[in-house]
Design goal:
Elements lengths: L1 H43 L7 E7 L8 E7 L6 E5 L12 E3 L3 E5 L2 E8 L7 E8 L2 E2 L3 E4 L9 E6 L13 H13 L3 E4 L9 H11 L12 E3 L8 H8 L8 E5 L4 E5 L9 H13 L5 E5 L15 H6 L1 H6 L4 E4 L5 E4 L2 E3 L9 E3 L6 E4 L16 E5 L3 E7 L3 E8 L22 E2 L8 E4 L8
Parallel strand pairs: 10-11, 11-12, 14-15, 15-16, 16-20
Antiparallel strand pairs: 1-2, 2-6, 3-4, 3-7, 5-6, 7-8, 7-9, 10-22, 13-14, 17-20, 17-21, 18-19, 22-23, 23-24, 23-25
């Protein structure tokens, strides 16, 4: 009996020791587990994706020393953009500079954040990531423009990327044109309006999703300089989505130092009045300071499509300014066709066609008419029309002090085109489909000898 009690007592002591060990182990785990979680967070936190998306790099001021970075902050909080001229991947702590958003605005179902970078170095690559409460974005980069007119600029120009019908899915022709941007790696993209069809939140989100195809596989983003089209219902649509420098969406931008004075005009507000007064004053003050004056706007003065109306007020108030102040190139959209004119000036002579006559010395070349993603028949021509057609396209400009090389890029085979490098961006890439007319595939616009100009 005594031996049985002793055995029971020993067994109880063993259970107490075992229970004490378990309690001690649990206590250790409770103490150590938060530390392990913290260490894991430090180890893997940097690779967790941030909840930013729909990125865009925007020309807002002089793009040789400034750039605006925009994105949709879909969730998360306290986003900060980390950046610098050396690539540190997604290690945000390694970047020497950081900046919180200058402006946040809810628009078109997106939480649009804009960081305005200033005091940048010209012709310099800048790498950036966005860090927020949920992680770090992919590393992207852009390059500021040179501020030296000795260096030619590569510019892609177009517009009308909307769909013909109600749809919020990716649209292949638009995607192909966007992919072509990534293949040609321009200094800047100028876009003269009509981004979406119905101007709805869903369509705008889809548009920005598709815009990501312009980003190169190395994370290279290309800045956009946008104008307003008639499918943008209000000026605020461009202002709140692209951080426009002027609430009425008309302004001038210096590109390449004194190489180009680039005008963005708005054909969806009053032509006569403040806009034209400003345009004339800026031309008067600056037209002898730059090698080229180039304008972009949405509605063509003399459309090459029969469903579109002639724009009398633009003809009356802008065309004479083009001639007087030597605006050598006007980029138009809206009609969804392709066209190039000969150099022309406004005229009331009996032989004028559509109010213009050809003048190779003083004339303006009119190009464009949209069709970034949608086409109509080019069923109107004038005696001064150099060529017109119907296909998805945008313009590719090589602008130097001496001349503009104007090419029309047909974007339908974008996936097959071999991408150029930044150092060889003026080399015609393999398989690039250029519009070949009876005059060839390049339109050389020589700079006229303008007295007093640089």
């Amino acid at each position: 009996m005594v031996a049985h009690r002793k055995q029971a007592s020993v067994e109880m002591d063993r259970r107490k020791v075992k229970r004490s060990a378990i309690i001690s182990q649990r206590w250790k785990i409770q103490r150590v587990f938060p530390l392990l979680c913290f260490l894991l967070l430090l180890l893997f936190g940097q690779s967790a994706p941030a909840k930013s998306c729909r990125y865009r790099v925007i020309v807002r001021d002089d793009p040789s020393n400034s750039m605006s970075i925009g994105w949709d902050q879909s969730s998360g909080s306290n986003p900060v953009l980390y950046y610098g001229p050396v690539d540190h991947g997604d290690d945000f702590r390694a970047y020497p500079m950081q900046k919180k958003p200058d402006w946040v605005v809810e628009h078109m179902g997106m939480n649009n954040h804009f960081v305005r970078l200033r005091s940048l170095m010209p012709n310099t690559a800048y790498y950036f990531v966005i860090h927020d409460s949920e992680g770090v974005s992919q590393r992207y980069w852009f390059k500021t423009l040179p501020n030296n007119s000795q260096q030619p600029l590569s510019i892609l120009s177009g517009g009308d990327s909307r769909r013909a019908e109600w749809d919020t899915s990716s649209y292949e022709p638009r995607v192909l044109s966007n992919i072509m941007v990534s293949k040609l790696r321009p200094h800047v993209v100028t876009f003269a309006g009509d981004f979406t069809n119905r101007n709805t939140s869903a369509q705008w989100r889809c548009w920005f999703d598709d815009w990501q195809y312009t980003t190169g596989p190395d994370g290279r983003m290309f800045p956009i300089l946008p104008a307003r089209g008639n499918h943008e219902t209000e000026n605020e649509d461009v202002m709140n989505l692209f951080d426009s420098p002027h609430p009425q969406i008309y302004f001038a931008t210096a590109l390449g130092g004194d190489l180009i004075r680039f005008y963005t005009l708005n054909t969806n507000i009053a032509i006569l009045g403040e806009q034209t007064d400003w345009f004339k004053q800026d031309l008067e003050a600056n037209h002898n300071q730059y090698y080229w004056e180039i304008a972009q706007y949405h509605h063509p003065i003399a459309p090459h499509q029969s469903s579109k109306t002639y724009k009398i007020l633009q003809y009356r108030y802008w065309a004479p300014l083009f001639t007087q102040y030597h605006v050598q190139l006007a980029i138009e959209c809206d009609s969804h066709v392709a066209k190039n004119s000969w150099p022309i000036i406004p005229s009331n002579r009996w032989y004028a066609d559509g109010g213009f006559v050809r003048n190779d010395v003083k004339g303006t070349v009119f190009t464009g008419e949209g069709s970034w993603a949608i086409t109509r028949m080019a069923d109107v021509e004038y005696r001064w029309t150099r060529e017109s057609g119907s296909f998805v396209q945008f313009k590719w400009l090589k602008v130097s002090k001496e001349q503009i090389e104007l090419r029309t890029v047909i974007t339908s085979n974008a996936r097959e085109v071999v991408a150029v490098s930044d150092d060889a961006r003026f080399v015609i890439p393999k398989d690039l489909n250029l519009w070949k007319t009876r005059f060839g595939d390049v339109y050389i616009i020589d700079r006229p000898n303008v007295p007093g100009a640089p």
